[in-house]
Specification:
By secondary structure, the protein is of the alpha/beta class. It has helices at about 10-25, 40-45, 60-80, 100-110, 140-155, 200-205, 265-280, 325-340, and strands spanning about 1-10, 30, 45-50, 95, 115-120, 130-135, 140, 160, 170, 175-180, 185-195, 215-225, 230-235, 240, 245-250, 290-295, 305, 315-320. The chain has a domain at about 1-90 and about 140-210 and about 300-354: FAD/NAD(P)-binding domain, CATH 3.50.50.60. The protein is globular, with a radius of gyration of 20 Å. It binds flavin-adenine dinucleotide.
Length: about 350
C-alpha cells in the first residue's frame, strides 16, 4: 500500500490533519491503535477556549484564538457534509470569583475578545456579586465531533485502519521508510505523528525536544430534566458545561499518574464537593457517569507542529495538552503550511521540533 501521508493517531488532531490534507488533494491513511476518537478527544469537555485565556503564553493564545475563529464554520461544514451535528454552540462562559479582573480586562482588550462585567444574580438566581462573561466562548460535543470528522475523512477518500498499533519506525538515511505494526509494514511518502499523550513514547530516540507526558483528567456527568443554566460556568479550576439535553459535565482533575486510566472516588468526591458549594440545592444529585482521559501534557501547553529536524519526511502534530480540541483545525492548518512550505500566518517558532 502506498499513500502520500500516513498519520499515526485518530484523535481530533489526527483527524483534522487528515481532513485538511485530503481537501488539499493528497492521499491519506490514518492508523489507529484502538478505535478512532476514543481517547482524549472523546473524554474532553469540548470547551472551545482556554479556561482563563489570560493565563497562557502567546503561542497558546494565537493557536487557540485561530482555532476558535475557525470552529463555527468547520462544525457547520461537518454537519452539512455528514449529517452528524457536533452540537457547536456559542453558550458563553461565565467566570465566577475569585478572578484576576485587571489581567482579564487587559488581555481581552488586547485580543479584541468580548468580556462583560455582569451581576451574577442575573444569570444564577442563587448567587450574589460580580462575574465576568465571555459571551463568544463556544462548546462542542466531543463524541459527535469525532464521529463527524471520521465520517468526513472517509467521505473525502481517506483510509482508516483501526486496531493497528505502530510500534516502530523503519529509517533509512534521513528518511522514514515504513511504520511497523503487528499486522505488517505500512509505507508512505511522509509520516505524521498525532498520537496525543503517546507521541513521545512512540517516537523514542527520535522524539528529541518533544516532552509530552500523559496528564489524566477525570470528568463527572450529571443529568437534569433541562439545562439548569445556559452558560459554561468556570470557578478557578472547576467547570460545568451544560449540554442541550440536560446533561452537565463537571471537570476536571489534572493528575500526573502515568498511563493509569482509573477513575477514583477521591476525584468524584472532590468535584462533587465543589459543585455542591456552588449549588447547595444539588446535595442529592449523583453523577450518572465518570470517566478519565489522558491529555498530551507538554511544557507551557505548547504543542509541536513541525517537520523533524533530521528525518525529512517525518512531522509531528502533538502535545496540545488542555486545548487540543480547540486547537485542532488551526493546528492542522499550520501543519499543511509547514508541509507545503507556505508562509505561516504568524511566528511559529515556538512549535518547532528541535
Ligand atoms: C478530562 C479532559 C478534559 C478536556 N477538556 C478539553 C476542553 O474542554 N477543550 C479542549 O480544547 N480540550 C480539552 N481537553 C484536551 C483535549 O481533549 C486534548 O488536547 C486533545 O483531545 C488531544 O487530541 P489528540 O488527537 O492529540 O489526542 P487523542 O485524542 O488522545 O488521540 C491520539 C490517538 O493516538 C492513538 N495512538 C497512540 N499511540 C498509537 C500508536 N502507537 N499507534 C496507533 N495509534 C496510536 C490513540 O489511541 C489515540 O486515539 C481535555 C482533555 C481531558 C482528558
Amino acid at each position: 500500500m502506498q499513500t502520500d501521508f500516513l498519520i499515526v493517531g485518530g484523535g481530533a488532531v489526527g483527524l483534522a490533519s487528515a481532513q485538511i490534507l485530503l481537501k488539499a488533494g493528497y492521499s491519506v491513511t490514518l492508523v489507529e491503535r484502538g478505535e478512532v476518537g476514543r481517547e482524549a478527544s472523546w473524554a474532553g469537555g469540548g470547551i472551545l477556549s482556554p479556561l482563563c485565556p489570560w493565563d497562557y503564553r502567546e503561542p497558546v493564545t494565537r493557536l487557540a484564538l485561530r482555532g476558535m475563529e475557525m470552529f463555527g464554520e468547520e462544525a457547520a461544514a461537518l454537519h452539512a457534509a455528514t449529517g452528524i451535528d457536533p452540537e457547536f454552540q456559542r453558550s458563553g462562559m461565565l467566570v465566577l470569583p475569585p478572578f484576576k479582573s485587571g489581567l482579564a480586562g487587559q488581555w481581552c482588550a488586547q485580543h479584541r475578545f468580548a468580556l462583560q462585567q455582569v451581576n451574577l444574580a442575573d444569570y444564577l438566581p442563587a448567587m450574589q456579586g460580580a462575574g465576568m462573561l465571555l459571551p463568544d466562548v463556544a462548546q462542542v460535543r466531543n463524541p459527535r465531533l469525532m464521529q463527524a470528522l471520521r465520517r468526513h475523512v472517509e467521505m473525502l477518500g481517506g483510509t482508516i485502519l483501526e486496531h493497528q498499533e505502530v510500534h516502530k519506525f523503519e529509517i533509512a538515511g534521513e528518511r522514514v521508510v515504513a511504520l511497523h505494526t503487528p499486522q505488517g509494514r505500512l509505507s508512505a511518502d511522509a509520516y505524521i505523528v498525532a498520537a496525543g499523550a503517546w507521541s513521545r513514547a512512540l517516537l523514542g530516540e527520535h522524539a528529541l525536544n518533544i516532552n509530552i507526558r500523559p496528564i489524566r483528567g477525570q470528568i463527572l456527568l450529571l443529568k437534569f430534566d433541562a439545562p439548569p443554566f445556559r452558560n459554561i460556568l468556570l470557578r478557578e479550576n472547576l467547570y460545568l458545561i451544560p449540554r442541550r439535553d440536560g446533561h452537565v459535565l463537571v471537570g476536571s482533575t489534572l493528575e500526573d499518574v502515568g498511563f493509569d486510566k482509573s477513575i477514583t472516588a477521591e476525584a468524584r468526591d472532590d468535584l462533587l464537593g465543589r459543585v455542591r458549594e456552588l449549588f447547595p440545592d444539588w446535595r442529592d444529585c449523583e453523577p450518572v457517569q465518570q470517566w478519565a482521559g489522558f491529555r498530551p501534557g507538554s511544557p507551557d501547553n505548547i504543542p509541536t507542529i513541525a517537520r523533524h529536524p533530521v528525518l525529512a519526511n517525518l512531522y509531528a502534530n502533538s502535545g496540545h495538552f488542555r486545548y487540543g480540541v480547540t486547537m485542532s483545525f488551526a493546528s492542522a492548518e499550520l501543519l499543511l503550511n509547514e508541509i507545503e512550505g507556505k508562509p505561516q500566518p504568524y511566528d511559529v517558532e515556538a512549535y518547532r521540533w528541535r
